[in-house]
Amino acid sequence: MNAPSGEPTPLPEPHRRSPLAGETLTVPERMIVAPGVGIFRPHAVAEGLELRAGDEIGVVEGPGTSCPVLSPFGGTLMGMLAHPGERLRSGQPIAWLRVA
User: Fold this and answer.
1) What would the CATH number be for the domain defined by 24-98?
2) Hey, is 21 helix, strand or coil?
3) Where exactly are the structural domains of the chain?
4) What is the full DSSP assignment across 12-25?
5) Are 90 and 34 within 8 A, CB to CB?
6) From CA 83, how far away is CA 41, in angstroms rounded?
7) The model's pTM
8) pLDDT tens digits, residue range 50-83?
């Protein structure tokens, strides 16, 4: 809707300050994804383990490479989505965490 001058009508004050629906993430789950292509070799981790950002849960071994799988955030390990020895592609989910 335009004002008489042809300029857009500004939003009322309360609408400019509050985030719009869908612009905030309120889901307490996060995914740890594969950093590259290769075979997944997990470390000894179990469901319920508390992880900190930067903790290593395994490695992805590719042709001539070995990439650590690091958790980008802290939380409780809820489950592994990749199996030991599974071939992964970059960005594929490996595990999921519940964050506080």
Assistant:
1) 2.40.50.100
2) coil
3) 24-98
4) PHHHHHSPPTTSS-
5) yes
6) 8
7) 0.71
8) 999 999 999 999 989 999 999 999 999 999 999 9
